């Protein structure tokens, strides 16, 4: 990795230590490295923004990789931030981790190579864009964005500032998911008749009242780019904000970010998207809420509830249940014993999503779930939500990323954003 620090070499690191103190005992075994852990000069320095809930699990996964060195934790909830700091210091066996409430202070640190963003959906892109501007590589939890335009903004920033940007769609680093998608891609199901994606529901407008703001929370900074509304504990507890349109795409973007990405991977449509979407009456269509059509005529349905994706072809079907881990069901069962030949399509191999990100920070290659893939997957979620909210069919232009001849629908491409958080 080409570091932004003035002297990233091992020799330079040792020289700086020696300058600070002549006594040799200050060069600790931790700094020099061990068989299990590389020396400090070869670790990737990181910070995490939003280390509560899902962020806690992501932090743990990165800390398990000896190549990572977390220098900072940031959260608008001081208790969560303190917990993350203690976790990091215990793992690294030092007291080096700094606490921040405002993520902008963390991003200004020149000694941080990469950041993990695991906040609410509506904060993902504003933080990620600013991180790219500050020269940080980005690992951002899914779903990538609150809106369609934001998703594209994330890609633009990553490319402009030449940043490695991994989206947390971990199925891209799952062997079962890859195998199932390879079977579809290589025609083991025959012609794909349709795909069915099961997700949570679309979000509704927020109806919650007002409560006193806890002392440990900076409510203004929690809201950030979204329109102001009073604090309510129902927005904080159990990711309650995920149910409301002002803050999230709901269960559709939450689970759908994974599953529509798998559909794109299996179909080989990662450079495009569906061209039409229309709402369905779930009472008449077995719980299906929305239908999509690709340019080649392939049909894809979204139903609620669910947490799986099913590919149905003329010669068989595969059902992937993605809760916690990807479990595959085959019809006929013999599909499970198929192998992919050397001359067939082999999808990108990645077994560990966090390790893949760290690998790419070093190599400067695009990661397994590059931001462009996350962008297109979440846009598919968004256009389905919009069709359901408007209650009518919509035509979509994948190249222009806008609805065709529909000014009302195009009003949903972006949202009003409070200053100074516009990307």
Helices and strands in order, then pairings?
Elements: H1 10-20, H2 29-32, E1 44-49, H3 54-63, E2 68-74, H4 78-92, E3 98-100, H5 103-107, E4 114-117, H6 124-133, E5 137-140, H7 148-160, E6 165-167, H8 175-185, E7 192-198, H9 219-223, H10 233-236, H11 250-267, E8 276-279, E9 288-293, E10 299-303, E11 308-313, E12 317-321, E13 327-331, H12 353-363, H13 371-390, E14 394-397, E15 402-403, H14 407-410
Parallel strand pairs: 1-2, 1-4, 2-3, 4-5, 5-6, 7-10
Antiparallel strand pairs: 7-11, 8-9, 8-14, 9-10, 11-12, 12-13, 14-15
Strand order of the largest sheet: 13-12-11-7-10-9-8-14-15
CATH 4th-level superfamily of the largest domain: Dihydrodipicolinate Reductase, domain 2
Q: Give helix and strand order, one letter per element, not per position.
A: HHEHEHEHEHEHEHEHHHEEEEEEHHEEH
Strand content: 15-25%
What features would you describe in this structure?
Helices cover about 35% and strands about 15% of the residues. The chain is of the alpha/beta class. The chain has two domains: about 10-170, 3-Layer(aba) Sandwich (Rossmann fold), CATH 3.40.50; about 170-205 and about 250-415, Dihydrodipicolinate Reductase, domain 2 (2-Layer Sandwich). β9 and β10 (about 300-305) form a beta hairpin. It has helices spanning about 10-20, 30, 55-65, 80-90, 105, 125-135, 150-160, 175-185, 220-225, 235, 250-265, 355-365, 370-390, 405-410; strands spanning about 45-50, 70-75, 100, 115, 135-140, 165, 190-200, 275-280, 290-295, 300-305, 310-315, 315-320, 325-330, 395, 400-405. The strands form two sheets. The chain has a nine-stranded mixed beta sheet with strand order 13-12-11-7-10-9-8-14-15. Strands 3-2-1-4-5-6 form a six-stranded parallel beta sheet, sandwiched between helices.
